[in-house]
Amino acid sequence: MSNDTTARILAFITNRFPQADITDTEDIFSLGYINSLFAMELVMFIEKEFTVTIPNDELRIDNFRTAKAMTELVDGLRSAVV
Amino acid sequence: MTQQLAPAIDRAYARSFVDSEIRPDADAWDRAGAIPEELLDRIAAAGLWAPFLPPEFGGAGIDMVTLGEIHEEVGRGCSSVRSLLTVHTMLSWALQRFGTDAQIQQWGPELATGRTLGAFCLSEPGAGSDTAAITTTAVPHNGGWLLNGVKKWTTNGQRADLFLVFAQGPASTIALLVPSNAPGVLVNPIDDMLGTRSSMLAEIAFSDVVLGPEALLGPSGFASGMVLTGTLDLGRYSVAAGSVGIIQACIDACSAYAAQRRVGGTALRDLPLIQAKLSDMVTDVRAARLLLAEAGRLKDRGDAATIMATWIAKYFASTAAARHASEAVQIHGANGCSPEFPVGRFYRDAKVMEIIEGSTEIQRMTIAAEAYRKWEP
Ligand SMILES: Cc1cc2nc3c(=O)[nH]c(=O)nc-3n(C[C@H](O)[C@H](O)[C@H](O)COP(=O)(O)OP(=O)(O)OC[C@H]3O[C@@H](n4cnc5c(N)ncnc54)[C@H](O)[C@@H]3O)c2cc1C
């Protein structure tokens, strides 16, 4: 499940930035071209793709730094719902 | 016994409201430089302030495609009224998306019913397109915030009850809900603008305004930019819709005028050069409406692609509105320059659409960046 989540997140990022050859533990903010527009797109993508709502207090940079961190966020939100 | 059902809030409903309550008086309001209080009440009674808010707030829960259609209809009647709806929509959307339960309880029903009218305070005397240059500050103070700074060009600033104010916080730009009657808030009307003259603009000074912790809307830190990005996206959507409405209003005015005006024994409408102008208006209004609907559909699906789709819809619709409103004046000749016909108002209002919610230049830069995104320098 989580592997699939990570793959879908990485696919979204590399679809937006094909030149970004990143791994699941790489800090996407270190890529240099992440702006507030992309941050919004990323949050919208995660909410729609995984049918979760990310509460304000989870909108922390550490939750979005890597595909792995985002996967953990999604897993946490999903288990909270169940 | 038949039960009285509430009318569906949709394009047809908005069109009939606009034709009876807005269109007949829009020129008079433009000259007076204000929208009368009775109209604000009638918009509230019609449920049109924020019909996209969910029913538990007192809204009608309509989708974004329909909201775009309603703002188009209002923009066809009066861009100033549409501007008031735009900024109220921006604040209401931000509250719905980022508000805590307590904030939603306090303000949701107020905004849904229009008992409280919202406005959006980002621009300053020294900062417009460059939003990072704002100098208004929010400093932590007794567990809440101390707000200082000056905002400019606030649509409905003269009348709004609640401001969504963007300020430099401790680590990033943050958004604050500030009641207009808070001590230290000073509203200075700005009159005699070129366009949207009755949208009751103001410059607003915040001087040592003390706010509680509940004033902060949305996250701080990394994601605080999202409040601004999301709010501007909704504003841009509404302005795109209003611009479609301006083009439609130009078509309506020009086809009526060209049918009755004669030059050299020929009806204006039969002259090929006039037909060329009308055909371009008709084509562009359809294209703009489709771009708007596409952005709306993506919003309704929660698809991240809506943000770029909205930029593009607003860019296309606002530049087309400015072009066609200029041609609408041209078709009317001297009459177009007189207060007897509404096209002069459309022309002045359309120019504003190219400046607000991301100017044409900023849109071009953003859209070009999208094209470049996939290619390494
Ligand atoms: C009628 C009206 C209502 C408004 N209502 C509101 C409101 O409710 N709330 C609010 O916060 N603001 C409001 N505004 C302000 C509006 O958002 C700003 O005017 C807009 O963001 C542009 O900023 P500016 O006027 O400071 O122009 P500037 O940022 O000073 O730009 C001047 C010119 O330079 C261009 N430019 C800027 N940067 C670049 C660049 N990098 N490259 C090329 N060209 C560039 C701009 O496109 C523009 O043509 C309103 C304005 C008007 C006219």
TrEMBL record, chain A:
Residues 1-78 form the Carrier domain. It holds the Pfam family PP-binding. InterPro entries: ACP-like_sf, PP-bd_ACP. This is Acyl carrier protein. It comes from Kutzneria kofuensis. Signal peptide: none annotated.
Automatic annotation (TrEMBL), chain B:
Residues 119-209 form the Acyl-CoA oxidase/dehydrogenase middle domain. Residues 227-370 form the Acyl-CoA dehydrogenase/oxidase C-terminal domain. Gene3D superfamilies: Acyl-CoA dehydrogenase/oxidase, N-terminal domain, Butyryl-CoA Dehydrogenase, subunit A, domain 2, Butyryl-CoA Dehydrogenase, subunit A, domain 3. GO terms for molecular function: acyl-CoA dehydrogenase activity; flavin adenine dinucleotide binding. It holds the Pfam family Acyl-CoA_dh_1. Keywords: FAD, Flavoprotein, Oxidoreductase. Residues 11-114 form the Acyl-CoA dehydrogenase/oxidase N-terminal domain. Its cofactor is FAD. It comes from the Bacteria. The keyword Amino-acid biosynthesis does not apply. Belongs to the acyl-CoA dehydrogenase family. This is Alkylation response protein AidB-like acyl-CoA dehydrogenase. It comes from Kutzneria kofuensis.
